[in-house]
Structure formats: structure tokens, C-alpha cells
Amino acid sequence: MQIFDTTLRDGAQSEGISYSVADKLAVARLLDEFGVGFIEGGWPGAMPKDTEFFRRAREELELKHAKLVAFGSTRKAGVHVEEDPLVRAMLDTLTPVVCFFAKSDIRHVERALRTTPEENLAMVHDTVSFFVANGRRVFLDCEHFFDGFRYDPDYATEVARAAFGAGAERVVLCDTNGGMLPSWISAAIGDLTARLGVSPSLLGIHCQNDTGCAVANTIAAVEAGVEHVQGTANGYGERPGNADIFAVVANIQLKLGRTVLPDGCLEQMVRVSHAIAEIANIAPDTHQAYVGAAAFAHKAGIHASAIKVDPVLYNHVDPIVVGNDMKILVTEMAGRASIELKSRELGLDLAGRPEVAASVTDQVKQREAEGWSYEAADASFELLVRGALGEITSPFTLESYRVIVEHREDGAVVSEGTVKVRVRGERIIATAEGNGPVNALDEALRTALSKHFPQLASLELTDYKVRILEGSHGTGAITRVLLETTDDLTTWVTVGVHENVVEASWHALVDALTYGLSRTKT
Amino acid sequence: MQIFDTTLRDGAQSEGISYSVADKLAVARLLDEFGVGFIEGGWPGAMPKDTEFFRRAREELELKHAKLVAFGSTRKAGVHVEEDPLVRAMLDTLTPVVCFFAKSDIRHVERALRTTPEENLAMVHDTVSFFVANGRRVFLDCEHFFDGFRYDPDYATEVARAAFGAGAERVVLCDTNGGMLPSWISAAIGDLTARLGVSPSLLGIHCQNDTGCAVANTIAAVEAGVEHVQGTANGYGERPGNADIFAVVANIQLKLGRTVLPDGCLEQMVRVSHAIAEIANIAPDTHQAYVGAAAFAHKAGIHASAIKVDPVLYNHVDPIVVGNDMKILVTEMAGRASIELKSRELGLDLAGRPEVAASVTDQVKQREAEGWSYEAADASFELLVRGALGEITSPFTLESYRVIVEHREDGAVVSEGTVKVRVRGERIIATAEGNGPVNALDEALRTALSKHFPQLASLELTDYKVRILEGSHGTGAITRVLLETTDDLTTWVTVGVHENVVEASWHALVDALTYGLSRTKT
Where in the numbering of this chain does the Pyruvate carboxyltransferase domain appear (chains A, B) (predicted)? Predict the structure, then answer.
């Protein structure tokens, strides 16, 4: 089975993605660590960045598992193959494999390419022969294959036949517009192989996700005997994207039971997925199949007690095999069992302390009824449990705070916060400015605490989310704030709830600093 | 075909989603506008919020297309069905339909439920009979059906048989762990119906997305003859989520050619999808099949000219039928064309005013680069266009404002806003309190304007949403505020963006009042 990744070529067509050459090299290294067989790096000649990528790849890129592939198209109509500059650009990359597209839908040949059916077949034949003669392995992408085959199966078959006749190693059937369903893919492959008289193992599959079925369509092709699958990391690609290569590979390996990655590679999946998201500058999808942070997260209280006993009954695969892990969410639906389980995950054993477990459960339920939510705020939850266990005390007591936001006559908007606190018996007043009310309070509080807790300087607030809980009272609604804080080693999330957004933020802020201090052990 | 939505029940299990009762009512109205046949509203008795939802739904919710469904479980083991409080809670909702789950995997019966196979069958029989005797339509969710059927097909079949024997209208096969592939779904359905001797049209399907195949699995079931599909808006749900009901319905209607929604409903899909995302406070997925903003966006330079001539060759369906539109990225013309189109939608003809269209396009582009978004803020967009047309002037000019939030020594949190404005030549200073900084500013501004614009008293802010756009600078991030305002006749949404949440809110607030005044014509 050939695992062919096109993150750097077709995946780079995604709205919102723009890789530098260095990005592309980094992505290629990651894909190689994931163990794919082929990495399509780009379209040399057509995109200057891709030409540069292949040049630098020759010097800098050492791949352990994958072969690099240059992408392109058949020669232009009416041009000799050796004189087509884009064909030459592919050849010049010196990659051992080339993959180029041909039109296989007669309507595209006539209306978009504006050439004859015969010339298009000659273009396929000439270009495949040229690369074979030059010692390259050739994969031919039949663009718009499935639409073309449904419209005119004879012509689409001729294109595939021309490619095989000229020595192509694989003919890749592309659902370019992404409109197929799995049963349609299976039927077309059965029909095509009967017409061609070839084994489906010589075919490849390339699916777009416009019906939400790209992964399933790819798997349907594999079940029909196809032995070459194309996809992109996290399904990045034009419109709704391509088949997600992570889900495709995990399904082939874990569901169809065929080992297609080198040993030890499947466990790299979560790491590689998130690292590529980082490079693409796209927030990882929490709910992505197999690799999402919530892919194995259980919320329903009814399951929690059973999950504790028998996790295999509630996970379709063991999360560890793809480098993920199981997460238990603390929510209003949770009973005591999931609170105990969650605490154990955080290293706090409540099993021997039933009165603490009961009191934490009551507190969580009451607070969640008021709008608090601990499912994304592990640090606030941990503080609550450690507080109930008597392990944590607050590093300071608040006397009062005040924050002022002014839009001045000159148009400047300024925020100023003042806090009055007691720290180890000392009364401290501090004032600071910020670019918003919460930032100003954060600065003022850190200033006030800095003498006693200099380690607070290393903490940084990295994310701030606000959610209004009750939509029917306008600005008088209940506000929930989630704060993400980091100390470079780790990241934690805290929560605050109040009808006043500033007070809600204050709660989350105090938890964030308290948690940070509990980690650094003064 | 029954289209059964469980956004408010199973979809509410999604990590990061927490609906208020008002949210749930709003989502139910939207789903009804989309034309689903059944809306599963929640689990009465188990969740206080859901009990409250059904109570308020009886009084407030008028549904045009959908029937409301209460969810629950079979009676507990060893308890008489009439005495099971959760069964009674379902009955008390008075919904015409109930849908409850039963264990159909023998391992779950024995290890999680800890009862006998026989008692589990009796629980199914008793509970179905009870609701049928009480005049309710019954759908039975067979939890973990596919895993159970693969492990012990005889027992899973018995559970379905018991449900039908007691009068269930549909037995819904659930892929609770989400580990199935389409071909496995088809095979299990074929095998089950042969064993049961019933038509597959009496079965339902409920898929989770853990293999990335939930939509395809659902479609495979429909192709196997199933006539009841469950899904959630945007695929929200636990772990990787449920089958996205939008993709499922679009595939059934546009790919399988079966009309399953009332006339005019499919075109509501994009609007309903985005509105539910707003309520869930989850950024809409740009790349979501059918409904994503980029679902029909073409980037590839090679296609652009051909697409213009022959769009049908490059779109798997016409985007208009699902309420979406085709976007060609990076072409300036597309921007202006869609602004003209949008303006026409609002009754403003820019076709004869190319300089105005160009200036609005430039402003929108620049502001969107800064983080503004007019997609959900029609009123702010209309003000922008009417401003460019010279039709609207601001009702006042701001000199300055100031807002103070204090957490006092006694624990009270108070907010006070002061605005200094000029209205029709008069300088006015007004101060007001509020339960948060934005509410205080809103009150102060209305007080200042009330003498000249008494009609402002009838406006009410009905929703307030905050989204942080840039996650990397903590509380210094850019903040986008959406305000919803109503004058009882209509509702409008305005937007404000600034690094300071108060200033962002101020922009949205000023737009909200300006728009309200432009409607009442002083």
C-alpha cells in the first residue's frame, strides 16, 4: 500500500494557508517521521516557492521513509513534450517519482483545455513515456475522474489506458470536485477495472471532502482493491479540504488491519498532526478524529463509572496507539465517579476520602448551575479539590480593586487598575495601566504580589475567552471567562463567572496566579 | 424519511458547549426553520436545565415542522417502570414522541449495567409498552449496537426484537463509540434485518465520527434502506462529534435525490448552521462541507478563468441551493460583486454608484483585515453603506466616556459609566450604574440621549457576544463584540472591534443605537 501525502501541494491550496520554503521543509520532515511513503512537495516551475523548495530539499532534506515527488501536468496541447517548460521543471527537480495530472473528463478537455480528445490522449502518452524514458516512476492523477467517468465512461477509461500503455506505475482516480459517495466510488472502480482488464491494485485514489465523505470514499477505494491513497495532514485543502491522511491511515491500519506505516510511526500521529497545524498557523481541531485533544474525551456522567472499570467498552481504539490519551471532562452531567476519576488523572486520590469527594461534587454541581464550567478549566478544578483537601491556601487576600477605562477627548483609550491586597500580613496598594481592563488588573495584581512572589514574573497569560451564558438579558447577562496561562513548562486554564465581565475575569486571574504559585513552591 | 436532530441532547455533550435554556429554545427554533422532523430537546429529570427547557418549550415554543422529543433511558433494573423517576420525567414533558436508549451490547449489560440479559430485555419491553400505552410514539436507541452486534449478534437482535414486539415505531442503531466504517454498517443492517425479518425502513441510524466517517456511515445506512437518520448541527457532539445533520441532509437530498425537507428549507442551511454556531459560541468551520464560508471557494489560479465561464464543471452542486455562494479568492472583483449583492439584499442599490461600491469595498476589506466581521452584523454593514451614500449621520458626537468597575471592601461589585456627548449642539454629561461596564455605559449613553431621542427607551439589548481573535497575546488580544438589539418589531446585530473590550463594546453600542434611531425616523 502506497501512502502518498500531498499536504505541501494540494493541501497548500487551502484558504488561509501559506507556507514559506522553510515551513515546507519542516512539514516534509514531520511527514517523514509519520512514515508516509511519498511526499508531494509542490509544482516546480508554476510556483517559484516550490521550485526553491525542491532545490533546497536536494541539499537539506534527509528522508528516512518517504520519497519526494514533484507535481505538474501533462505537456500542453500542441507542444513537444521535451520543449514544455513545466515538464522540464519537474524533470529538473531530480525527484525519483513524478506525479502529474491529466484531464479525464471529456467536458474539461473540450471546454477548459479546448483541445481534441485525441490530443489529450497523446499528451498523456507522451508525458508518461518521457518520464519513464528518463528513469522516473510515474503516477498519473486523472483529474475530475469520477465526474468524467459518470458522464463518459469510455473516454475516462481511454485516458487511464493511455497512461498504463505508456508505462505509468499508478493511475490515480481523483474526485476533484469532491461530490462522490462511498458506494459511487466502489461502483466506478469495479466498472473501470472490468473495462481496463487491470487489477485495482494499480489504481490510486484522491478524494476531496465536499460531501463530508473524503475519508470514507478513500476507505471504500481501498476495500475495492486500490493500493495507493492520497491525502493531506488534517485534511487541509481547497474548499472543505482533502481526505485527512491521519484518519485514512489510522482506519487502514486499525480498522482494516493492514500495517502500512513503519514500526513506531502510528504513535507519532498526534504529535505530527499538531506540529503541522502549528506550522500552518491553524488552531488544531479539538474534535478531529483520532488526533483531536477531545477525540477520546468523555463527558457523559452516565458513562463515567463504567469507563473507570472498563475503558475498552467506551473507546473505539486504544488512544495510546495513535499517541493520544483519554480525558474525562468534569461537567454538570458528572457524578461523583467522574470527579474521582478526574482527580486521579490530576494525581489526587479521593477514593479514601469519600467526604471530600462528596463535598467537591456538591460544589461543582452548584457552581455549574451558576454557570461555572470546569471541563476546560483543569487548574480551577484542581484548586477546588486541593482546597477541599486542605492542601492549598490563597497567597493573598483582596481588600478591594478598581479599574477605570477612559475614552479621552483626544480619542485615546486607556485602562488603569488598582488593587489593595494583604500578603503575609502586609497591606499593599498597586496601580498599573493595561490595554484593557483585565490586562490592567493583571498588571496591578502582579505588581502588588511581586515583592513576595517574584516567580510570578515568569507567568504569561496566553489566551482569554469570554462566553455570555444567558442571552436574554443583554449586557446584564452572566459572563464566563476562561484564562490560559503558561510558565513555559506547562499551560493551565482557569475559569471565572460573574454578571460583571471584570469580576469574572478577576476570579479566573486569581486562580491562574494561585495555581502558578502552587506549582513553583515558594 | 425521518430527519431526527439531537443537537440539544447528544450534541450538547460536546466539549466546550454549554447551552442556557434560552439558547436551547433559540436552537430549537432554528432547527425547525431548517425543517427537521424531530428535535430531541434533552434528558428531563437527569439534567435540571433540560426539565426546565421542556417546561418552557410547552409555553413558548411554536414549531412549524418539527415534533419535540424527550430523551431518557429504559427503566432501571429491578424497578417497576411506573415508579422509575426518569421514565416519569420523560412522560411529564408531554412530548408526542419519546426516544430512549437501551443497552444492546451484552458486555455493557453485564459489566456496566450489572444485570442479566433477560432483565435488560424486560426493561426494553416494559418501557416501550409503557409509553405506547400512554399514547406516545417510541423510538428506541440501541446504544453500542454495532459493537454489540459484532460481538454477539443474537443478543443485539433480541433487544431490537423486544422493542418492536412492544410497539416501538423505530429501532435506532447507534454507533456509540463511533468506530464503524460504511461497509460494516451496510453489512450489519443486512444481517440484522434478515434475522429480524423486518424491513430496514423500520430502523434508524445514529453515528459518531470517531473514524471520520459519520456522514458516510449514515448515508450507507440510508442506501441499505434505513428511513430515520439522526445527526447534530455542524456535527457537534462528544469526542469527534456526531454525524453533521447538514451534510447528511444535503447528501440525501442532492446526491441520493430524495426530498426530505419541506420546500424552501434547504436554502436555510448556511444561515441556520452559522446561527447555531453563534449560539454555541463556536467559530463556524470555514471548511465545513456545504455550509462553510470556503466550501465553494476556489483558490487555484489554474481554475479561475474556467470557473467563471463554466462554474458547473467546478462545483459538485450549485452553492445557492444550500444558501451558500461561490467565492473566488484573491480576485478583487468578487469582493465588490458580493458587496453589491449584499447591499441589494438590504434594499440599497449600488449598481449605479460604482465609486460608492468601491469605497465600501475598500473600507470593508481594511476593517476585516483588522478583525471586523460583517457576516453576522448586518446593521453595522448597512450603516457603513448608508454612510457612504450620505444617507446617515451620527445622532451625537462623543467627547469622552469613562467607566469604573470597583470590587469594594464589603465584596460588592459596582460599575459606573459616565459619557460626555454633544447632541444637536448641546453638551450633555450623564452618569449611570450598571451590572457590568458595558451595561453602565449603555445606561449612561441612553440617559444622555433621552431628551432628544425619547424613542431609545424602547430599544433593548438582547444579546452580547465576545470573541477573542488573536490568541497569542493573552489579555492584550483583539476583541470582537457582537451586540443584538431589538425594538420589539425587529432585531439587529452590530459589531465592534478593539484591543480593549470596553471600547469594542462601545463601537457596537453606538452602531446599535444609531441603527435603532435610523429606523424610528425622528
Answer: 1-270
